[in-house]
Amino acid sequence: GESVGLHLPTLSVQEGDNSIINCAYSNSASDYFIWYKQESGKGPQFIIDIRSNMDKRQGQRVTVLLNKTVKHLSLQIAATQPGDSAVYFCAEIPNRDDKIIFGKGTRLHILP
Amino acid sequence: GAGVSQSPRYKVAKRGQDVALRCDPISGHVSLFWYQQALGQGPEFLTYFQNEAQLDKSGLPSDRFFAERPEGSVSTLKIQRTQQEDSAVYLCASSSQTGDSEQYFGPGTRLTVT
């Protein structure tokens, strides 16, 4: 069935290093992908999105890569900071459907 | 401007009680979504409104779950005869239009059923 999942439940990164969070999705018909950040006690916060007709999109310190051939999505965070500590979810909005399908999440730990 | 707000932030209910969770979306937002987030999991879709119309309720886990948005703004998610498996964070999100515009999430209501 439709699902979006992540390869690792936790990721520890040294402060200042780059972080890469990976995601595999199964619905090849999905048109739109989003990365969310969720801090403790808060709702998910939009980070960056990408449409299926793109393979890369950059934001401020973040880059999303989409590989439709292997149905893989990744989030790269440059110069990771303590404030980046959170759970990160990849998510998809299937074609012609508004609801968001979330993966299980990766917890990012920043080491001092 | 104000974001999406939800109340109460925390709710403890005894098994069998009914609960009502409120969502105040961003003013003017047409679309409103409810999600359920179990501990350690990603949010899962429950139901979707466009204005006052409930267009999709395919994610509601049972007929004990009921949502409404009578005037196209505030929404209430009601759970009747709560059970322990209903314990979760209930998230509300709103967006300004249909399609794939950004959904803004509230802080959620943490429901614990004892």
Major protein interface: A-B, 21 and 25 residues
- The gyration radius over C-alpha positions of chain A equals 13 Å
Rg result of chain B: 13 Å
The helix/strand series of chain B, from N terminus to C terminus, equals EEEEEEEEEEE
Number of helices of chain B: 0
| Proportion of strand residues of chain A | over 45%
The helix content of chain B, as a percent range, equals: under 10%
Q: What is the terminal-to-terminal distance of chain B?
A: 37 Å
Strand content of chain B: over 45%
- Spell the H/E element sequence of chain A: EEEEEEEEEEE
**What structural class is derived from the secondary structure elements of chain B?**
mainly beta
Helix amount of chain A: under 10%
In whole angstroms, the N-to-C terminal distance of chain A is 40 Å
Q: Stretches of chain B where pLDDT falls below 50 for ≥5 residues?
A: none
The main sheet of chain B comes to:
7 strands, mixed
Main sheet overview of chain A: 6 strands, mixed
Overall form of chain A: globular
Number of extended strands of chain A:
11
Mean pLDDT of chain A, to the nearest integer, reads 89
Looking at how many chains there are and whether they match, the oligomeric state comes to heterodimer
